[in-house]
Amino acid sequence: TSAVTGSKVHSLKILGSRRNFHCFASTDACDSALVSKLPPSAFRSSSQLSASHAPVFAKLNKRDGAGGWSPLASKSSQWLEVDLGERTTITAVSTQGRYGSSDWLTSYLLMFSDTGHNWKQHRLEDSIGSFSGNINADSVVQHKLQQTAVARFLRLLPMGWNPGGRIGLRLEVYGCPYSDHDKEDDEQELSLKFKSLKNCGTLLHARGASALGLSVEPDHRRLVSLGSLLDDQQWHVCYLCLSVVLHVFHPGVFQLSVGGIPNIPEERFQGCLENLVYNQHNLIAMGNVTFTCSHQTLAVAATFPGPRSFLQLPGAGALTLVPTAGVSVGLNFRTWNRDGLLFTFRLPRQGGVVWVFLSDARLCLRIQKADRVLLDLQAGSDLDDGQWHSVDLKSRGGHLSISVDKDDMAHSSPSFTVAIEKDLFVGGRQMYDVIVPYTRSRFECLVVEGCPAEDERQEDCRNAFASFQGCLRQLTLGRQQVDLIMVQQRMLGTYSNLLIDMCGIIDRCSPSRCEHGGPCTQSWTHFHCNCSDSGYGGATCHSSVYEQSCEAYKHNGNTSGYFYIDVDGSGPIKPQLVYCNMTEENTWMEIHHNTTELTPVRPSSGERQHLVPLHYPASEEQLLAVIGQSDHCQQEMAYHCRKSRLLNTPEGSPLSWWIGGVAPGGRQNYWAGAQPGSQQCACGLQGDCLDPKRYCNCDADSAEWAEDSGLLVHKESLPVRSLVLGDVWRPGSEATYRVGPLRCHGDKNFWNAAFFATETSYLHFPTFHGELSADISFLFKTGAPSGVFLENLGIRDFIRIELQSPTRVLFSFDVGNGPLEVGVDSSSPLNDERWHRVRVERNVKEASLRLDTMPAATRQAPTDGHIHLQLNSQLFIGGTASRQKGFRGCIRSLQLNGATMDLEERARITPGVRPGCPGHCDSYGALCRNHGRCMERNNGFHCDCDQSAYDGVFCHAELSAIFKPTTSVHYAFQMEASERGGGNVSAKLPSSILSDLSLRAENVSLSFRTSQSPALLLFVSSYQREYLALLINKHGKLEVHYKLHGNKEAEVLRSQAKGLADGRLHTVVVSRVTDLVTVHSNLNWIVPSFVTESEEVDPNLIRLSSLGFSGCLSVVRFNSVSPLKEALLRPHGGTVHISGPLVRSNCGSPAASSPYAASGQPLVNAMRTDSALIGGVIAVIIFVTVAGLAVAAKFLYRRKETYRNQEVKSGHRDESQDLAFEHQTDSQNTSGQNPKEYFI
Question: What are the backbone angles phi and psi of residue 106, rounded to the nearest 5°?
């Protein structure tokens, strides 16, 4: 689409077939000089300094008269006008200063018109209204119009001039005579030109024999989606290619209506049509039809462009004979602003002030005297839509009314006279010093000069007396219309900063600069994009708020869950919701479909084949992008059968097949686990099918259940789109099938990296194209203090990102407005050989730079500046074109507008640059928690949790167990078999094992939750018959018992806190180095103490262990050994022996309210905003913690049952439950038979 505005005659064509379309603008070359041959009568100006400075002398390179035109006073309200004699296609304008002087223009506006009135401003770019002028009096500056203009009259308005001189001008205009219609090729095409007096109406309506129709009409301010503000009484052209509606126009057209639809008068077009051409036939010229478009007398408009714009007029008494006892003011306005002062005047005899203004897009009237409001009226709504609206204020005979668009009226009967005392002020200049109260009510008129100091930051405290910015016309006082041309000539009233005889309104939302479907709203000077529901962020909804893969989420520290991913970043592919499975070494992205469970085949009656369509929630382009960027993809496929053959038949034609690959997909005659095209199953490839003559188990046609299953791993055949099962209709045939979700791992883009060895090394790529919006993101790590990451140059424009210092990243660019910079400073050095992320975005509104997780730095673009970034050199990565200030280090995952630059491929053929970059644990090692070790991989890292009591992708998932007294787990060190073989055990053991068995130093940690008191939590004995015991005594206090070799009594460390058997989660850490023991717990006490050596085990501990333990133990760790984890994850690994039930639980999670809390379901991390993203991460972490702890276990002394039986027989069970544990008495060493065991 393209905007169709003003006097610019576009040739916008929509061409194509039923499937493909393309748009282009065509302009015939024409560059003849037009001004130099014009007569003196063709020149007019607002004023002239003298006869020798007349406008007729303003011809390029001429020295006649004073050498050019100069007005009487150098003001921005001056103008020079040229009449080209007929409608002309204008392609360029050149300017020059006045010869032999210091008088020249530095900037100017360019206006066009067909009639000499109703001027339309021509803009250099969509956002630039002014043209740059000269730097001296002699040089020529030419501007070629990006969009040609068609007009008869040209007007140039000086905006800036040499400060040391005056306004001085010579000019030339280039173009050619306007051609009514260009001959085209044989395309099925319809074209017309129009100018409209109204904002709606049918231009063309065609109806075919099949009652199908096509209408073209400017609906309100837009023509379909091709343009806006088309009721500006300027010529516009519309081209339509009708090859997509041939059934309407050819051959069955029997009615073509121009300018309306028969019998529907309210939809008729009011305006002029020109050159209505269908298939190169001018329909208006056919037959006895004449076509003229008279230049109607048009209402003169005035534009109020800024806060300094105002118009002051004498009251009605000075213009008419209407008595001053009443008032009548009328006008039409159009604006994009919700607030603004329309007009104001004083009442006679200091009766107060009348304010008529817009507030929250409603019309408000307020009469106020001093600080007292006498009257409030409101009318209308949504008056900021850019359309013309009428306002009428009337007061006569004690009755006051104000109306909007003739039908929405508010009225009152004030007790005072409403009349204009002297002058009427129109626009933004407030002439009266009054106290205006403020209000926050949305439904009241807001008349405020500002907010109180304490409310300055309140969003709902608005300044409704903002200056009016918009267009006014048909201004009336009394019963007489104000002649704005007389105002322009200074013959009536006074004004400042107005553009008279034109409406300079701009639709900044057509075409919309908001990307990815973000709605566009606007004011007079700015537009705003609402990105809240788009999945994108930034000023124009350009950059995605989501990561591009599960791999990227993992390296942000996330764990398994549902995430939105955007595979092409800021590209056109929308975000999609996937499940990221991070429980394995590889990070899997899973996309489910409608049939992922094992499903029985139930064919319909008479059905010879059963079709199973698979529907994915992702779009076709999303699926292909995911598969393309992944290292590996697979899909499980299984077929369970009884008397239901799968592929092979005696004649060899397949009974079943599946469809897979790029849509609509190709027929695949092999089954999962075999090779493409083989017409086999996995067993055929391995040679172990049930029937050796067949290539699938199911093809044996057995009456017993059989299965053919496997993985599809060829990306070209994925995803599976449907199954066609052929042998399901025979009597006795039974079958079930399953197609698993599409699963992919590895992100080629995320790990694509290059290492730059020297400052002179660099990579180069084709020119970066980001004219209106561009985003760049990458990761870097370096030890160098500075260097340029990226640079691309144009003739004047450029873009550069660099490490300016060890703590500062700088983004600089120029789009024609001069160099701009955006920098971010880090509190810590960036040359630390760790990965840092840089994200840059530049659009028509702002430029932003984000470093790591720091807040983004932004720089606003000029309101009316250049917006197109025009580059033409190669894109340099890691260096510059001058080979200076190059970057030394690694750059990874470089993406420009969502597309990944293949650094590794280019690095393989570039000297001084190497593909890849190791050393990821330096940056991501901190993600491995709880003693997990970061292990390097070629593309990334993984956390080794072997020496951690935790599990999970980051060693973060707690492992917990609930157990009852009947449960027993025995963990033995790996030397037990050697001991049983006899000989010197110590000599046979490696030193690493002995260091664990000899209690010279240890670190023990666990969490527990129980209601039992007393209870033995942990017992450890060493090869040298030393032991450590952790227990809760009968008073609910925590005790640590240490007994070392040679001591007859055990040392006891006892907490002061009571009530630990309260069912809540408690954590204990015991550390000892030689004879110094330190105990930490969540009870906020630390007990350092010295222990001595001992020999025997307290018999009370033995009896206590026989009672068993009821409760929860979690994340038990003894030095580098995690016995509870070993029992839960590797129960058959040879180091543990389990008796009784052992069930995992989440009882060790702080979120678990009960030791018997069950594990929950995964929380969906489906983030839609930045704040939702943070909340989702926390939710997933909590879930993984809970789910990882959904286990139960207990470690008991191996001979516990023996002691239990002894206690029961002796009748002393009650005594054992009341053990005081304060005595340390001698006893026999009852654990001597198993001195190398770990008991809990």
Answer: -100, -20
